[in-house]
Write a structure and sequence with these properties.
It contains 4 helices and 5 strands. The protein has helices at about 10-20, 20-25, 40-50, 70-85; strands at about 30, 35, 55-60, 90-95, 100-105. The protein is extended.
Length: about 110
């Protein structure tokens, strides 16, 4: 895959199933009957306008889950934030990295 620039098959399936425009724009052009099916211009514009990686989400608040990071702790923390009624709704970008996550302010990348 490295030398051919092809995407790994299972990853292509995940991209298709996700229906996330940013991921769909990474898909190679499909060839049918010796004709190249062009990508949608809208997806091209989105890719050009989106310099930063990650997903646009709304930041709601912060809460400590402890040091273990157990899924049950995380789920309980999410429910506490949602039920508190004190949501901030700040536009941010959310990236999943190898050893954690990165949240940056969408407007100024801070």
């Amino acid at each position: 895959y490295r030398t051919s620039d092809d995407l790994y098959g299972p990853i292509v399936n995940l991209f298709c199933l996700s229906e996330i425009p940013r991921l769909m724009s990474l898909m190679p052009e499909k060839r049918t009957e010796n004709k190249i099916v062009k990508k949608l211009p809208e997806l091209e514009r989105q890719r050009d306008n989106t310099i930063n990686p990650g997903y646009k989400v709304l930041y709601c608040g912060c809460i400590t889950t402890g040091t273990e990071g157990d899924v049950k702790q995380i789920e309980q923390a999410i429910w506490r934030i949602l039920r508190s009624g004190n949501l901030q709704n700040i536009p941010v970008r959310f990236e999943c990295l190898e050893l954690g996550i990165k949240v940056t302010h969408d407007i100024d990348n801070a």
